[in-house]
Write a structure and sequence with these properties.
3 copies of one chain form a homotrimer. Chain A is globular and about 45 Å long. By secondary structure, chain A is of the alpha/beta class. Chain A has a 5-stranded parallel beta sheet, sandwiched between helices. Chain A contains 6 helices and 5 strands; from the N terminus they run βαβαααβαβαβ. The two termini of chain A are about 25 Å apart. Helices cover about 40% and strands about 15% of the residues of chain A. The longest helix of chain A has 16 residues. In chain A, strand 3, helix 5 and strand 4 form a beta-alpha-beta unit. In chain A, helix 1 packs parallel to helix 4. Chains in contact: A-B, A-C, B-C. The interface between A and C is medium-sized, with 30 and 31 residues.
Chain lengths: ~160, ~160, ~160
């Protein structure tokens, strides 16, 4: 039954609502004593990117990095974003209800020992290097590492 | 091997197509004798919301509830919605092919003993109380309940 | 522990980025000796559809097939598609970085023995017959087949 003691999540999405759902599950599982790993891939890299555009690596990468701004504080909603108005309203509501922000949830998960892995394939595609990511990211690794972790996990989710 | 007898789904999405996929899997698994739980969170709450806007809880919640109308009969498609035309066409096609509607799939799953849990965190964020949800919802609970269920499940999916 | 030797994925999404994530995981798991099954449903059918519109089955199906063009080479991004510009840029970047295309990843997975199943319910809804799908698709089956496979799998994902 030890298999059920691990949770592994692929965070593919870069939207605020999905990232909030991810980190709510992550923090809950960690507080219940589970060993948790989050594998950040594709748009999910934005969640652990330092804010601001990323440059370098040629014109296409620069253009993509400009359009695809990272940083947990800058993520849009997957629905009702409405040029940022919906996102602003949800954030205000969360504050009013005294809910933790995404950045706080990320820090909390780290203090609970959650492992953060950034996908090397996406990083090289998008021109993201380790120093462009927040320090909470433990390592960079490929899909094989995810599969290894998930094989040992009682719960594996793709978000 | 008893572990494989449970299926737990987080329904995060509030779109017709994803809800249909969810309830097709749910009903199939239940008819195969599996114990099934669906945990409705974020936009997924719309699937089990009573139709019409929800009010109360201050101006932001009222505004959000107006823009985010609930009810299984009112969900848009995640793609090709086109102001409702695509959704209308898919629904007509489903009717023509004599496929059950989402509302029918929900009722069927209930008659098969599927457990419906609404996420308390989302409910308090969006100002949704139990009486604004359809009676098929058994209870309201937090992420810890989901993690507990998923730990015991052979299949856990995030939709 | 033999349970952990199987991976089953529902590919519900029809976007290039999600399909790439799916086939990266699939190929990695297969190369690690896992038995892999991909169940293509709803928009995910586009990934294994032959290119070009599909006709027949009445006016609604024809209209939907025109708006919902299939083929692994024609999929849009889920974000930053921008009328195809973002998708074009990502594809150029992948080529420049010498990454395999989605079509190559699909062929590779097939050569590694990955099983492809197309969802019969979606096929009949959208008027898709076996000859409109790429030859890599092994069979057409319903949700019961997915549930059976997933029950035996150490990792099950909904993408």
């Amino acid at each position: 039954m030890e298999k059920k003691e691990k949770l592994t999540i692929v965070l593919f999405s870069g939207e605020l609502d999905r990232a909030l759902a991810c980190f709510n599950i992550v923090n809950t599982a960690a507080s219940m004593g589970m060993e948790v790993t989050v594998f950040f891939t594709f748009w999910g890299l934005n969640v652990v990117a330092r804010p601001g555009p990323r440059f370098g690596g040629g014109p296409i990468k620069s253009m993509l990095s400009l359009m695809n701004r990272g940083g947990a504080a800058n993520l849009p909603l997957s629905r009702l974003n409405m040029g940022g108005i919906g996102t602003f309203l949800i954030k205000r509501l969360m504050k009013k209800e005294k809910m933790p922000t995404l950045e706080e949830l990320i820090r909390l998960s780290k203090s609970q020992g959650v492992k953060f892995i950034a996908c090397t394939t996406t990083c090289s595609l998008m021109g993201v290097t380790k120093d462009l990511l927040i320090p909470e990211v433990d390592s960079m690794a490929g899909a094989a590492t995810f599969v290894e972790e998930a094989r040992d996990s009682g719960i594996s989710l793709f978000i």
